[in-house]
């Protein structure tokens, strides 16, 4: 394929050289004539393992060259990749100046170019940017609409400086966010030589995944460093502890706990976070990220409360009370916290949790709920139908499959706040549905 790449920085130069090596005809575009000159003389504009040799090879073979002339690049290629910089503004906002400028440039040339041209954005941009800003610029400048003659994709780059050539060939995945999967099928050809699953998704999802990855990587480093800082003071070899921690691929290095939804609770996570932070206090170790775990968690109780207030209903059926499904443990349940808040504000609750029977509660579990909601017995009912009887709205918190089936049968049209993320509810409740995760 004939590909132009706008932006000959770390991303553009490396992907350009790698695509050229794979047999594509690549034309790099940069506003910096110094970079263009270096590339055309077979030198790499960046320091990166393997780039000096690769650049010389692909430039000498004629597969890769560069220009400052955007028009030449757009007219001479079928697809333009955009990997210009998106640095931070002084206030932390993302600067879109370069992606806007390139979109306008491409659009203006397309106005008088015959035939189809595809634009693939690779710069890191916030969710919604492609559809709300870049496509409108392209469409206006080119006087084309997205369709047979103009296709747009968002394809985030996952290479890391220092190992970027290796990362190009073996990324964690190839993500193609497109408005029309079939119309952009030829992009699969570009990535045929890359050892990674191709995942197609909506453009906003693709834009988001790039942020999720980078933010999570930062979060992981902070987690390891904060944990390490305290463990060191506690006389622990933190590297050994973390190495063993990472061997748990069931709960730790896994998908577990990574489903956007409602707050965590229970008898262990909050207690153990508090104890770890207390130990840090005694050792004079500051752990700002970990110190914000519980406040962050509590905000989701407030979010849920606000969703309930938005329904403008006072009589509520609450399905679920224990801190998660499959247990009767109410200790530090975020659903209990929500119930308490609602009761305090005068809402009439009828609560059903298949696993919770006040007569059977014992020990610290019983003490906890009697302390938090002293008249809990009067609010708990023994079936979903009883809870729904007279209810004006429903909160689905940790309902069982059977609970949900009964609910769907008896009160399908009621407004609902879904803390559980039940796909079917989202469809059946329509406009009266509020979910915590979508
Ligand atoms: N560096 C990384 O490791 C990495 C990894 C993945 C994603 N990203 C993202 O990719 C994008 C590019 O990052 P980078 O590190 O390669 O940036 P960079 O700053 O190294 O390079 C950007 C290049 O774009 C050029 N440019 C600016 N405006 C231009 C225009 N109108 N036309 C043509 N060229 C123009 C600049 O001269 C520069 O050479 C950013 O959005 C970044 O967040 C970077």
Give the proportion of residues in helices: 40-55%
**Main sheet, how many strands, which sense, barrel?**
8 strands, mixed
Strand content: 5-15%
Radius of gyration: 28 Å
Q: Which of globular, elongated, flat, extended, rod-shaped describes the shape? A: elongated
**Ions and ligands:** nicotinamide-adenine-dinucleotide
Strands in their spatial order, largest beta sheet:
3-2-1-4-5-6-7-8
CATH arch. level architecture of the largest domain: 3-Layer(aba) Sandwich
Distance between the termini: 39 Å
List the uncertain runs.
none
Structural commentary:
This protein has 438 residues and is an alpha/beta fold. It has two domains: 2-201, Rossmann fold, CATH 3.40.50.720; 296-435, Rossmann fold (3-Layer(aba) Sandwich). 44% of the residues lie in helices and 13% in strands. The protein is built from 18 helices and 13 strands. The strands form two sheets. An eight-stranded mixed β-sheet has the order 3-2-1-4-5-6-7-8, with helices on both faces. Strands 10-9-11-12-13 form a five-stranded parallel β-sheet, sandwiched between helices. β7 (174-178), α8 and β8 (198-201) form a beta-alpha-beta unit. α1 (10-21) crosses α3 (51-60), α5 (97-110) runs parallel beside α6 (129-142) and α13 (293-310) packs across α14. It is elongated, with a radius of gyration of 28 Å. The protein binds nicotinamide-adenine-dinucleotide. Nicotinamide-adenine-dinucleotide (NAD) is lined by residues 6-12, 29-32, 35, 83-86, 98, 101-102, 123-124, 157, 159-161.
Give the topology, please:
Layout: E1 2-6, H1 10-21, E2 25-29, H2 33-40, H3 51-60, E3 64-67, H4 70-75, E4 79-82, H5 97-110, E5 117-121, H6 129-142, E6 150-154, H7 164-169, E7 174-178, H8 187-190, E8 198-201, H9 203-233, H10 238-246, H11 269-282, H12 288-291, H13 293-310, E9 315-319, H14 334-344, E10 348-352, H15 363-372, H16 384-388, E11 393-396, H17 401-410, E12 416-418, H18 423-429, E13 433-435
Parallel strand pairs: 1-2, 1-4, 2-3, 4-5, 5-6, 7-8, 9-10, 9-11, 11-12, 12-13
Antiparallel strand pairs: 6-7
Helix pairs in contact: 1-3, 5-6, 13-14
The structure holds nicotinamide-adenine-dinucleotide.
Nicotinamide-adenine-dinucleotide is lined by residues 6-12, 29-32, 35, 83-86, 98, 101-102, 123-124, 157, 159-161.
């Amino acid at each position: 394929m004939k590909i132009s790449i706008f932006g000959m920085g770390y991303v553009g130069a490396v992907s350009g050289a790698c695509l050229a090596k794979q047999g594509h005809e690549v034309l790099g575009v940069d506003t910096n004539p110094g970079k263009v000159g270096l590339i055309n003389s077979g030198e790499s504009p960046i320091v990166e393992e393997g780039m000096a040799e690769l650049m010389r090879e692909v430039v000498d073979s004629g597969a890769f060259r560069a220009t400052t002339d955007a028009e030449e690049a757009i007219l001479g290629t079928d697809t333009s990749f955009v990997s210009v910089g998106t640095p931070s503004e002084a206030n932390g906002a993302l600067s879109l100046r370069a992606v806007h400028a390139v979109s306008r440039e491409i659009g203006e040339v397309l106005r008088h170019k015959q035939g189809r041209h595809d634009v693939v954005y690779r710069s890191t941009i916030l969710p919604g940017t492609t559809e709300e800003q870049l496509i409108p610029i392209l469409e206006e400048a080119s006087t084309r609409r997205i369709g047979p003659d103009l296709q747009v994709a968002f394809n985030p780059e996952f290479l890391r400086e220092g190992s970027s050539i290796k990362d190009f060939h073996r990324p964690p995945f190839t993500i193609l966010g497109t408005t029309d999967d079939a119309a952009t099928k030829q992009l699969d050809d570009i990535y045929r030589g890359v050892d990674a699953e191709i995942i197609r998704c909506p453009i906003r999802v693709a834009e988001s995944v790039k942020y999720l990855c980078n933010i999570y990587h930062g979060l992981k480093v902070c987690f390891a460093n904060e944990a390490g800082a305290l463990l060191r003071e506690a006389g622990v070899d933190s590297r050994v502890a973390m190495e063993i921690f990472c061997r748990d691929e069931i709960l730790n290095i896994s998908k577990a706990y990574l489903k956007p939804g409602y707050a965590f609770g229970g008898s262990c996570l909050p207690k153990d976070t508090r104890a770890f932070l207390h130990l840090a206090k005694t050792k004079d170790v500051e752990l700002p990220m970990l110190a914000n775990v519980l406040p962050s968690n509590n905000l989701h109780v407030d979010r849920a409360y606000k969703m309930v207030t938005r329904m403008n209903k006072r009589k509520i059926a609450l399905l679920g009370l224990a801190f998660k499904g499959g247990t009767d443990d109410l200790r530090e349940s975020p659903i209990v916290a929500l119930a308490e808040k609602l009761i305090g504000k005068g809402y009439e609750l009828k609560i059903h949790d298949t696993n919770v029977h006040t007569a059977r509660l014992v020990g610290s579990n019983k003490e906890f709920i009697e302390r938090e909601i002293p008249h809990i017995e009067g609010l708990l009912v023994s079936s979903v139908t009883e809870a729904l009887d007279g209810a004006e709205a429903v909160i689905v918190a940790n309902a069982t499959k059977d609970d949900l089936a009964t609910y769907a049968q008896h009160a399908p049209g009621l407004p609902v706040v879904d803390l559980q993320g039940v796909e079917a509810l989202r469809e059946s409740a329509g406009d009266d549905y509020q979910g915590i995760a979508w």
